[in-house]
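Reopening this ticket.

The earlier resolution said the output was attached, but the attachment link was broken on my side. Pasting everything inline this time so it's all in one place.
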Amino acid sequence: MGIAGFSSIGEFKQALTRDYNRINSSIFASGVVTLKIDVQDDRISMLAIHKRQSVLDTLSRENAHIADLADLYLIKAFKKEMKQVLIQQYGLEIVAIFKDYDAVAQLSSTVILLKKEGQTQSD
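Inline output:
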């Protein structure tokens, strides 16, 4: 049995891809163009190419600071929902989720740190 009850890493990555796209679509009304997922011992890394929403492009031209704030809060919403899915549906113990988005390159990077077996909160 593989990670989080999946029979293979490939099956796990496919499920993560579906959930990432579903969450992204619910927040941004659009899936990702491409998504690459790497799974290592205590970390899951995701690199995605996004299509920037035209409303956010317009906001960036009119007021870059407000657009940056919008990106920040959209990222926070994504992280919150992704963490909930990873815990409830995958049974993973999450230490932290880090996510950044580069609007010009339309790239996002997400790193999910998993609790290691035997690790305590103070480790």
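Reporter confirms the inline version is readable. The chain has a mean pLDDT of 88. Residues 64-88 form the longest helix (25 residues).
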